[in-house]
Specification:
275 residues; alpha+beta; 5 helices; disordered C terminus
Length: 275
């Protein structure tokens, strides 16, 4: 649930920044060979692609030097960006320097390390306006509680059927995380959180503002062994003592009561379990 842990995922723009730093001066010399060992007189070249409607870049795409080179470049761009050859205006770049429009007459000037930039002139292109990359443009599927209740093949419908057969039936083995699941978590009450028997104080209960109806309890831990500071996805839900003191947990993982006092750091967990 942490929003404060750094991501280990390597983003494409990070690789591009590293590559730009390493090859910053490549345009000032002959660029004798590429990083993959292809000499300039090789039968193959490595080209980068960029696109007028997209942030993405495609790095070191290999092509064979032959009479179909331009057709192969256009086809690869079509496959990777969705822009058909009829709507492609291709421009050659060496570093940040524009060398002109790519055509059959100047294919011989292509060198490994160059970038082909595609200008999509289709006003109805599927990539126009960020449609292929901006997830905020995707309409989310949402249901109100009333609409969900009206559906037949859901967990709630299953529970209603089972309770009609047996009024004592519960969803204990099919856990739901509704408001009732955190009803025992009283704001300001001492608690113990699993896993790890971490102790702290209940500071918040509720749902996040991301459309998920799952209920959580926000706990300010006695020690910085949590995952956040009371913040989730950039919003502060409660004030924790500091970074690492906050955590959001499901109600089933929280035990509340005055017996969960703050531990003395000199106490032994093993001795406590033997009492």
């Amino acid at each position: 649930m942490s929003s404060s842990k750094p991501s280990l995922e390597i983003k494409n723009h990070d690789l591009l920044a590293l590559r730009s730093y390493i090859t910053a001066q490549d345009h000032t010399h002959a660029y004798a060979a590429t990083t993959s060992g292809f000499a300039q007189n090789s039968d193959y070249i490595l080209l980068d692609f960029s696109h007028s409607n997209l942030d993405q870049r495609h790095i070191e795409i290999r092509f064979e030097r032959n009479e179909q080179l331009l057709d192969n470049i256009q086809q690869k761009i079509h496959q990777t960006t969705g822009t058909s050859p009829a709507n492609q205006q291709l421009v050659i770049y060496q570093g940040n320097e524009c060398l002109g429009e790519l055509c059959y007459d100047n294919l011989s000037m292509l060198r490994s390390g160059m970038r082909i930039h595609c200008l999509d002139d289709n006003p109805f292109s599927i990539s126009r306006g960020g449609a292929l990359e901006n997830t905020a443009l995707v309409q989310k599927f949402r249901l109100t509680d009333e609409e969900y209740d009206a559906r037949p093949n859901t967990l709630r419908a299953f529970a209603r059927i089972q309770q009609a057969k047996n009024p004592q039936f519960t969803l204990g083995q099919i856990q739901t995380y509704n408001k009732q699941s955190v009803s025992h978590c009283v704001i300001g009450e001492r608690c113990q959180v699993e896993p790890g028997k971490r102790r702290g104080t209940v500071k918040w209960t509720g749902t996040f503002d991301d459309g998920d109806r799952t209920y959580f309890a926000g706990v300010n831990l006695d020690e910085p062994i949590g995952q956040n500071d009371g913040t989730y996805k950039g919003k502060q839900y409660f004030d924790a003592t500091g970074p690492g003191y906050g955590c959001f947990v499901r109600g089933q993982n929280v035990l509340c009561g005055p017996e969960f006092v703050e531990r003395n750091i000199m106490d032994s967990d093993e001795e406590e379990e033997e009492l």
